[in-house]
Specification:
Blueprint: H1 3-44, E1 50-54, H2 56-62, E2 64-67, E3 78-80, E4 105-106, E5 113-121, E6 127-139, E7 146-152, E8 156-161, E9 175-176, E10 182-191, E11 196-205, E12 220-231
Length: about 240
């Protein structure tokens, strides 16, 4: 074999090795990318049907605190309810009458989420704060028949729902969502030092909703509640 042919053969072998090495590196990069993507999606979609977040900057400035247990008062800026594996549609009439007094933290039922927590002004000033519930993710338009019921201090009770898809009117006994992705937006004013607000949030699929149809089966929803505020110094300052 001539030297030219040997050189050409060597070059072909070298190019083949280079291509194989490149493909191996590309495959490794792709595997790493897919692993990272899986981890990220796993974090984003690990459940967490309902969470509560306190704006951390506001919490530091005002000493508004949130916690699950009155006896322990473990201060948090993030609270998480326990998830339930499966929602089957139920009626509001099936919920316990004293659901707002059944427990602290998560006290879910078979087909509903129930979560109770507290917000307390442990600072030195009177404050105002806002509370909102936002929908993070919806699968199969299940939000059309979702109900979000909020008890405040065991006295005030409001049930929120999307308006009827056909008529555009509020469903019976409910307050319409603030917008497509915002369930509610309310404020608490003159929240004095030592004041305590108790919240119980209940989430379920309302079977008596006209928009509760078979196409919603298998749907999922994730939402979060946020407490944030405006700081009001006392007049004595």
């Amino acid at each position: 074999m001539s030297k030219d042919k040997i050189d050409q053969s060597a070059k072909k072998v070298a190019k083949r090795k280079t291509r194989i090495t490149f493909l191996k590196i590309l495959l490794l990069v792709l595997i790493i990318f897919l692993i990272n993507l899986y981890i990220i999606l796993g974090i984003l979609y690990r459940g967490e049907n309902f969470t509560v977040t306190l704006d951390s900057e506001f919490g530091r400035e005002s000493n508004l605190t949130i916690y699950e247990n009155l006896n322990e008062k473990l201060e948090r800026t993030f609270l998480r309810s326990k998830d339930i594996d499966f929602f089957s549609d139920i009626s509001i009439n099936w919920l316990p009458e004293n659901i707002h007094n059944e427990g602290e933290g998560s006290h879910n039922g078979k087909n509903y989420i129930a979560y109770t927590f507290y917000a307390e002004n442990q600072g030195q000033d009177t404050i105002n704060y806002w509370r909102t519930i936002e929908i993070d993710d919806v699968v199969k338009d299940v939000d059309k028949a979702i109900r979000v019921m909020i008890y405040k201090n065991d006295e005030e009770r409001v049930v929120y729902a999307k308006p009827n898809e056909t008529t555009g009117e509020a469903e019976e006994g409910t307050v319409p969502f603030k917008s497509d992705k915002t369930v509610m937006l309310e404020s608490t004013e003159n929240f004095k030092v030592g004041d305590l607000d108790k919240y119980t949030v209940v989430i379920w699929v309302e079977g008596d909703d006209p928009d509760c149809i078979d196409s919603l089966i298998g749907g999922e929803i994730r939402m979060h509640m946020t407490l944030t505020e405006e700081h009001i110094p006392d007049k004595k300052e």
